[in-house]
Each structure stands twice: as C-alpha cells, then as structure tokens.
Amino acid sequence: MKPIKVKRIAHIVLYVKDPDASAQWYANVLGMEVSARVQDGPYKGGVFLTFGESDHDIALFPAQEGATTGREFEHIGLQLVSRTMDDLRRAYGHLLANDVRIAEILDHGVSVGIYFYDPDGHMLEVFHQLTDHADGKAIAQLHDNGGQADPTHLDPL
Hints:
Number of strands: 9
Largest sheet: 5 strands, mixed
Order of helices and strands: EHEEEEHEEEHE
Strand order of the largest sheet: 5-8-7-6-9
Structural class: alpha+beta
Shape: globular
Strand content: 25-35%
Helix content: 10-25%
C-alpha cells in the first residue's frame, strides 16, 4: 500500500500581477466564481475561485513587484465535463470569442486538449477525455501510445 494516496489535485495557487483582473478573466473564460477575497494578512488582495463544488479550485495571490509570472509550471490540465468532442469544440469557440491566446491543440490518444494562456502567461489546458479511466484503460492506452501528443485541428462551435 502506498503511504500517500492522492485522490485528485484539489487546487492550484498562482502569483499574478492583478488578482482582481485575473479573477475577472477566469470568471469570463472558465465560468469560475469568486468564493472569497483575502482582506488582511500575508495574502491580502488574494482571490479564491471555484468551479462551483469545492471551496476553491484556483487561488490568485499578488505577485511581488517585478516578479516574473507565467513560468511557475508548464500547464494546468482541466478536464471538461463533456460527453462528446462537440463540447470541446464549443469550449474552443468560447475561448476564441473571448480573444484568448491559443498555444496549440493536441491529440493525446486518450484525450484531446486545447492549450491556452491566461493574462499572466500561465498555460492552461481544457480537454475532452476520449478513453475512460475505469479499470486503467486510459493508463494502458497512454502507455501503449508512448505519451502521444500530436498537433491536431479543431473546428470551433
């Protein structure tokens, strides 16, 4: 038995230039809602955001003056609640309608993801899962395809 068994990524915390402006962007682009604003203490000015189930999924804290942002990690993957590729196409149309800078669209065999940037240069991915996680199917397919990441085209809806 593993000593630590993580269920899921519970939340991420990002340093951003302007937490309020970034919170508005996350609300407009990803449909998030503000669950709390930090009024005092070391994280004063921070904003907690939720997708509607957890108390917070993303927290945005003020970066120090002159700090480089957007390079703290490679990207954050966000699995869509989706039934078909049309749901991903609709998400793509929404991103384009909001002038979101798209990095690339990749077919991983197990999923197809749209990679894009927030206002501070953090890369995010929204993806449609093609292969079910049940019984290790997605793990086996990713293993078999060697971590496939092929650029692909997606028509927005």
